[in-house]
């Protein structure tokens, strides 16, 4: 577990600030997500190409058709002009549909959060922690002054 935490910190995917809040490097996360998306499209497109072009009457005639099929599956558009007819082709489309929707949805959520600032709790948490630290320091000063006043009152009453 410690090895994994060290690897995550060295990966520059996030840094922990003075309040213990993880601040993710969304540029790196977005780039890695889109790279994974491209690799999945290219590799599953190739698998589909190999499975479908060997079958007669398959709408997938070449690699571009297979790549188009993967892109349409991952974005849930699915025009229907190219579709798989083999089990391997359908399995590849299913895998691309599940993973592609997840990756694109995650990337879209990250960018929407950055652009529109929905639920940017890290900034709010940092501000609240700063305010709490200031209030706590002020309370300590007030407590010390009260103790001094109590001692003075006790010495006057004797």
From TrEMBL:
<feature type="transmembrane region" description="Helical">
    <location>
        <begin position="28"/>
        <end position="51"/>
    </location>
</feature>
<feature type="domain" description="Potassium channel">
    <location>
        <begin position="49"/>
        <end position="115"/>
    </location>
</feature>
<keyword id="KW-0472">Membrane</keyword>
<keyword id="KW-1133">Transmembrane helix</keyword>
<feature type="transmembrane region" description="Helical">
    <location>
        <begin position="63"/>
        <end position="85"/>
    </location>
</feature>
<dbReference type="InterPro" id="IPR015449">
    <property type="entry name" value="K_chnl_Ca-activ_SK"/>
</dbReference>
<keyword id="KW-0812">Transmembrane</keyword>
<dbReference type="InterPro" id="IPR013099">
    <property type="entry name" value="K_chnl_dom"/>
</dbReference>
<feature type="transmembrane region" description="Helical">
    <location>
        <begin position="91"/>
        <end position="116"/>
    </location>
</feature>
<dbReference type="Pfam" id="PF07885">
    <property type="entry name" value="Ion_trans_2"/>
</dbReference>
<protein>
    <submittedName>
        <fullName>Ion channel</fullName>
    </submittedName>
</protein>
